Amino acid sequence: MSSKPVAPSLLDPAILLPAVKAAFVKLDPRQLVRNPVIFVTEVVAAVVTGLFVRDLMTGTGSPLFSGQIAAWLWFTVLFATFAEAVAEGRGKAQADSLRRTKSELTARKLVSAEGRETQTIPATSLKVGDVVLVEAGELIPGDGDVVEGVASVNESAITGESAPVIRESGGDRSAVTGGTQVLSDWIKVRIGVAPGNTFVDRMIALIEGAQRQKTPNEIALSILLSGLTLIFLVAVVTLWGLAGYSGTLLSVTVLSALLVTLIPTTIGGLLSAIGIAGMDRLVRFNVIATSGRAVEAAGDVDTLLLDKTGTITFGNRMAADFMPVPGVTEAELADAALLASLADETPEGRSIAALATGEFGRQAPAVSLPASGKGEVVALAVGGGTSPAGATRIDAVIPFAAETRLSGVDFGGRRLRKGAVDSILKFTGIRDENVPNEFRRAVDQVARTGGTPLAVADGPRLLGVIHLKDVVKPGIKERFAALRAMGIRTVMVTGDNPVTAAAIASEAGVDDFLAEATPEDKLAYIRKEQHGGRLIAMCGDGTNDAPALAQADVGVAMQTGTQAAREAANMVDLDSSPTKLIEIVEIGKQLLMTRGSLTTFSIANDVAKYFAIIPALFITTYPALAALNVMNLGSPQSAILSAVIFNALIIVALIPLALKGVKYRPVGAAALLRRNLLVYGLGGILLPFAGIKLVDLAVNALNLV
Amino acid sequence: MSIIGWLQISLLFIAVLIVIKPLGLYMARVFSGERNVFSPVLGPVERGLYLAAGVDPNKEQGWLAYAMSMLAFSLAGFVSLYAILRLQAYLPMNPQGFAGMPSDLAFNTAVSFVTNTNWQNYGGETTLSHFSQMAGLTVHNFVSAATGIAMALAVTRAFARSNASTVGNFWVDLTRSTLYVLLPIAVVMALAMVWTGLPQTFHADLTATTLEGAKQTISLGPVASQEAIKQLGTNGGGFFNVNAAHPFENPTALSNYLNIFAMLSISAALVYTFGQMVGNRRQGWAFIAVTGILLISGVAVVYWAEAQGNPILTTLGLDAAQGNMEGKEVRFGQAMTALYAAVTTGLSDGGVNGMHGSLTGIGGLVPMFLMQLGEVLPGGVGSGLYGMVVFAILAVFVAGLMVGRTPELLGKKIESREMKYAMFAVLILPVTILGFAAVSAMLPFAVASIGTAGPHGLSEILYAFTSAAGNNGSAFGGLTGNTPWYNTTLGLAMLLGRFAYAVPVMAIAGSIAVKTRVPASKGTFPTDTPLFVGLLVGIILILGGLQFFPALALGPIVEHFSMLAGQTF
């Protein structure tokens, strides 16, 4: 896992200077119309500017006043566009370096899949299905799957992690990403994604915010803000008529000032910056989301579906012991387990082979199986080190599959199998009541201690049990407790039997578990939860996981996972850390909280603005209304100008908060609400009273009106 | 203010609190179609009505069909009432021989009763025949209230159900509200009112000779029956022009109590029914608490303002301890007038037992502001409940994000569709009130209708449109409303306030009903806690305040400060 990512400094001139330029470019009304509140502000600013010019030309009115109001209205718009530009600027540097690696790519396309003869072409002209050869020192030209070979790959260009990773054909570590570098050996890669749509392309688009679309909640919030803008438009326009009753002729300048201070410019100006910053935060946590919708959904997640292995327990289960049934020797069992694991590329399968050849001193058979081993006829030297049985022909190799949950090998009339206990019992055809007691006891003993029993059989004959061990990660229990406080259930998914699963579940402190889970079970569980209205997040890496990843509301694929998993998921974790899901949920919640807090703040601000502007508007007609001037502002004109200035400055003042986000604490909704209501609701009502007063003191001290 | 006054006020609220739960539970049974005490008697009537109307009570409607039925029913009601009012000279039971109503007044009155507003631009005892009062107005006192209840039920079911395409059957809800709720309670209430001294007779009027020897005509009629449903259905349209200040509509302190109790009880109990039907009674109590806090604050402010009196009059030698008694009935006093004024405007009842225009600046501000808050405290029967739900949706949306989840209310996600309709509904009130008021304030012939110069005149105009758009029906007094301009614009304001608000709300119900109900967890935004009550109070106050503060500043607020400054107009 990466260390806590550091955000770039807010005052970094490399970001600020281009952002100032971008802020002006964004004034284009065609762009700004996407943001109704700020668009209205721009229109009003243009109108007041016109009035200022008129005042200047005709010498009527007060050009000093209308000029300053116009200037501050323009600042309000500029500050809003600036906020968005700063948020976007923070991802730019990363996008630029990614684009550099991309532009230099060339590919060595294989003329035929079997040979090693290649032709060099630009990476941009690769097509899906092409197979390329990549050797040590070269950059991988596009996204795809390793079809042959093993290599160590440096993926730091994407993940920022300098330690190389192993990529090999078959299994769940076959996916490679364009732009990453092969450090040793060679691999053949089948291109799986057309150029222009690769992972790096998507990442660049995402970081730059080019493809940014409003998320559902942003749309709903925009409707609220537009509605409020309309309401205030009505209130301000009708005020002209109501004031006319008492003989007050209100100028368009002051009504414009009133309108802009009332409409929610603060949240309107910062809304898109909050969204971009949320994505940016994810990127800095080394997670790439394909849409803002997924980030929002992360905040809503009710249930986390966590794979036991690698998330709750340390990486892989390791074979720890062979436990033969009476009449079978340890050596016999170890040999059978070793052979049955030949085609099992899972870490468990490898650990069985390691245990048999290591601690139990059995000799590995001399065999080389091609990747497409099934059904191949291969010579095999079977047996222990002392009595080589000579070369035997293998009839069939049964690779491990999630559906059958067993693997094995057929040769010389023998059918060796190892796998999940119930699968093996079914394979042997032994009826339940005929299962030897010793076998049962061994299975129970392993399961009770939280381990995983695997059964080994030779045709209809049960040979014994393999004990796989699992260790729960330290500290994981506390994290689950924190999640529970947030109202999120954790569900452990495992292929283990219910007894084993229960033992580990209670040790890790999860809320529920899904034992003996096939990919179909996972999918069914997700559908069931979703039918009940819950939002589900899960992470996965295998091709098996793809349907469930696609079905889940938040599906996080590991960068080390298969191409299929990465395509199905709506987020990719570059660190391939399964516990990242927890951080993703927190980032989603933080994004929503920031939006809500600033909306509340923005609306609460209006109270003070009324007390500043209303008495100022009617002081000549109704001197008694001076009683409403609770802030004791200098003059009617300074009061209006101060409210406008405060309204503009508050946007700038809140940019850091919009980018950093409101702090999230896992304390439950009620406590969070109480705290945020106090800070942003009550604070939002009170702060502008002080703020406007201070601005007014400055305005009067400088004799601006 | 006095202890006795506060005791009187508290007693009323306690009485209402006691009745909320049993009445709320009873209504939940009725509207769920379960058997109740009246089933043996009224069940056959109910089935007979369905048979006669060709309604299949088991066939439910989607939101659109439900809303269309509601609109069709209201349109039919409007047309028939308009006809009765225009043609009353040719209809029976017209002992005084009143002529037909002029067209603009008939339009205004028909709209007024169909929309549950009951704004009175007519003087009942001098304009309407007994037939018009009974077959016209009283019928609508029942069915306009029942229509409101029906719409509230559609919203309630939308939250109670999960993945549902229907929200109930309008005709069934309408029939059940009338038969099982309004009718039986109205009968009991009418008898109780007769006991307190209200007349109930088909006699025309009595002619009496006064002590000075002058002849006085004393109007009579079926007052008690109309009075009962006027309050129960939060209609507010009285038999007499001066409404519940008239000694035949509201003769004693006890009848005054019955009046206020009747208008509050069904509307408040419906909120409990909501909680019961959505399976969260605490939610019902939370809404009731919001209502209680705002309503009691309103009563307190009016009572305080009236007890303070008018310093200008004090300097003229009036006893300051008496407070402001102008426009109040001595038999009710300040406490009961303040209570009536706040309750009748917090609800969209609109009956009055004193002249709101005679209240002090602040005292008059409160009733106007309570109406501008959207008539949700607890609002008209039904309409108040769905208004409160719209506010809850807004509150949840604004503040709900602050807990780090997309907003949800009672397990239903609030998304852009709901937001769109809610904003549309919320927009109706300021557009109608401020729009018509601003135009009227600029038109010389409209301004000519005001009764008082200065800011008070603006208050009269503002109050009229507020009352009409809020479907309240109470008048500030002073404004001559029976002119073609006001008859028409107030009628339009009533129509917009009722239907342009209700149809989007029905659309919200449809959109909410199809959603899956998400089970609550610790991460869910709590909507049934004291914190949420405080939040909702804040949202209602701030939203209402922000919309209407500038207008109010030019009316009652400046009136108040001018009074303190000793300035008159």
What's the helix and strand layout?
The complex is a heterodimer of chains A (705) and B (569).
Chain A: H1 13-25, H2 29-32, H3 36-58, H4 63-103, E1 106-110, E2 118-122, E3 131-135, E4 144-154, H5 156-159, E5 165-168, E6 175-176, E7 181-191, H6 199-208, H7 216-245, H8 252-262, H9 265-284, E8 287-289, H10 292-300, E9 303-307, H11 308-312, E10 318-324, H12 330-340, H13 347-357, E11 379-381, E12 391-398, E13 406-411, E14 414-420, H14 421-428, H15 437-448, E15 452-458, E16 461-469, H16 476-485, E17 489-493, H17 498-508, E18 512-514, H18 519-531, E19 536-540, H19 546-551, E20 554-558, H20 563-568, E21 571-573, H21 580-618, H22 636-660, H23 669-701
Parallel strand pairs in A: 9-17, 9-19, 17-18, 19-20, 20-21
Antiparallel strand pairs in A: 1-2, 3-7, 4-5, 4-6, 4-7, 8-21, 10-16, 11-12, 12-13, 13-14, 14-15, 15-16
Helix pairs in contact in A: 1-4, 3-4, 3-8, 4-6, 4-8, 4-9, 4-22, 7-8, 8-21, 8-22, 9-21, 9-22, 10-21, 12-13, 15-17, 21-22, 21-23, 22-23
Chain B: H1 3-31, H2 39-53, H3 63-87, H4 103-114, H5 124-127, H6 130-160, H7 170-196, E1 205-209, E2 215-219, H8 223-232, H9 253-277, H10 281-308, H11 311-315, H12 333-346, H13 361-372, H14 383-400, E3 408-409, E4 412-413, H15 416-442, H16 444-447, H17 455-469, H18 484-513, H19 530-565
Antiparallel strand pairs in B: 1-2, 3-4
